[in-house]
Design goal:
6 helices
Length: about 220
């Protein structure tokens, strides 16, 4: 059984997730009452995330932090574990090509690892393991377009929550919500059903969709 995955992301009106003049208070206010068991992110997102360097941080949540990092890129786990937004038992998803030195580093910090897949993490198998081994039933995805694209293409995302920032960004090299190879047929378009919508603080729009898996492959 797979955990339910909710993609929660902010974007400009033209779909860019970079160069946002964004109000994080709006973004996180939306999810404050969500009943989730964990947050899943990619290594790119975690490497860019702002972290408090304080050593005495009060935990605000007991949810798991799950990070996909098969290349062994993240080396500030001592700081990450202390943050307020998740418990101090993060889970790292790795593959069989993840460097042994990185796996030892994680083990020394008592960080749990799940190893599935060859060159890349086998996400369907890893997600099943998260449910079976840790009782994770609902995951919020907080990531960039690459991890979102992989999970969307594999049919693993159940709901999509987008906070539209009141801006147009433009550009020739956009970073978008959904990064994946171009389609060759309309059969692979992911259909969505609108569940609810809301205007927040006059200018922000929150759109919440369910992935229609009867129409989408």
């Amino acid at each position: 059984m797979f955990p339910k995955i909710i993609l929660h992301i902010g974007s400009s009106l033209d779909g860019r997730i970079d160069w946002l003049k964004f109000d994080n208070f709006v973004y996180y206010r939306i999810i404050k009452d969500w009943d989730v068991d964990g947050m899943i992110s990619g290594s790119n997102t975690m490497l860019k995330a702002e972290m408090s360097e304080e050593t005495d941080i009060t935990k605000l949540s007991d949810q798991y932090l799950v990070v996909v990092d098969s290349k062994g890129r993240i080396h500030n786990w001592e700081v990450i574990k202390r943050q307020a937004y998740w418990n101090d038992h993060p889970i790292v998803l790795c593959s069989r090509t993840t460097p042994e030195s990185y796996l030892k580093y994680l083990s020394d910090l008592q960080i749990r690892t799940l190893i599935y897949g060859e060159d890349h993490v086998d996400l369907p198998v890893a997600l099943e393991a998260l449910h079976e081994k840790f009782g994770i039933n609902v995951l919020r995805m907080d990531s960039g377009g690459i991890l979102a694209g992989v999970l969307l293409r594999q049919g693993l995302v159940d709901e999509v929550s987008v906070v539209v920032s009141p801006q147009l960004t433009g550009g020739l090299t956009p970073k978008s919500i959904f990064v994946a190879p171009d389609l060759r047929t309309f059969d692979d378009v992911i259909d969505l059903d609108l569940i609810r919508h809301e205007v927040i603080d006059q200018n922000y729009v929150h759109l919440y969709y369910r992935v229609n898996k009867t129409r989408s492959k």
